[in-house]
Amino acid sequence: MSIKKISAIAIAGLLAASVVATVAQDAFVAPATPEEAVEARQALMREDGGILRSAAGLSGAEAVAAMQTIKTNYSHIPALFPEGSIVGDSEALPAIWENWDAFVAIAKSGEDAAAAAAAAAEAGDADGYAAALKTLGGTCGACHQQFRG
Ligand code: HEC
């Protein structure tokens, strides 16, 4: 095989690897139906709840990874609430779409708090981590109070 051919194959391999890496980083696909949206957001909420319950006991790389997962999950919240998607056992309230900006703002503040918690954990700042966790936890209740029936 010529050097040219070998390097072409190597480059193709590298490109394929980088596509896989990009997908693996955030494989999020917006739901196609209201049923899918409800299922996906309920699963996301349960995952966040599970992580948050153990988060106070984490530190270092484990805490960073946990907070990055929550940050990514929070960034998906708006896309998981397509307008009027109240089907099946959904507890979502119509208020979500009547106050969309407020709904998105709570999700964004949670995303920021998770990022702050990850940064604090990375820096070994236990107090900063605890404070950011508290802010993050506050966004769960703030949103449920207004937007979950
Ligand atoms: C921006 C708004 C918002 C935020 C932030 C939010 N939630 Fe929710 N959550 C909802 C809504 C709306 C529902 C109802 C979804 C449905 O049933 O369609 C819900 C549902 C849930 C459920 C029920 C899932 C099920 O199986 O039915 C749990 C558990 C939950 N949230 C936990 C959390 C936790 C823990 C946090 C914080 C880490 C959180 N949520 C943050 C809006 C939010």
Q: Percent helix among the residues?
A: over 70%
CATH class of the largest domain: Mainly Alpha
| pLDDT averaged over residues | 90
Structural class: mainly alpha
**Count of spatially separate domains:** 2
Approximate shape: globular
Unique bound compounds: heme C
CATH superfamily of the largest domain: Cytochrome c/b562
Cα gyration radius (Å): 19 Å
Q: How much beta, percentage-wise?
A: under 5%
Number of strands: 0
**Span of the ends, CA to CA:** 66 Å
Number of helices: 6
| CATH fold annotation of the largest domain | Four Helix Bundle (Hemerythrin (Met), subunit A)
Q: Can you give a write-up of this model?
A:
The chain is mainly alpha-helical and 149 residues long. It has 2 domains: 1-28; 31-147, Four Helix Bundle (Hemerythrin (Met), subunit A) (Up-down Bundle), CATH 1.20.120. It contains 6 helices and no strands. Helix 2 (34-55) runs antiparallel to helix 3 (60-76), helix 3 (60-76) packs antiparallel against helix 5 and helix 5 packs antiparallel against helix 6 (126-147). The radius of gyration is 19 Å and the shape is globular. The protein binds heme C. Heme C (HEC) binds at residues 38, 41-42, 45-46, 48-49, 52, 77, 90-92, 103, 106-107, 110, 139-140, 143-144, 147-148. It holds the Pfam family Cytochrom_C_2. This is Cytochrome c. Residues 1-23 form the signal peptide.
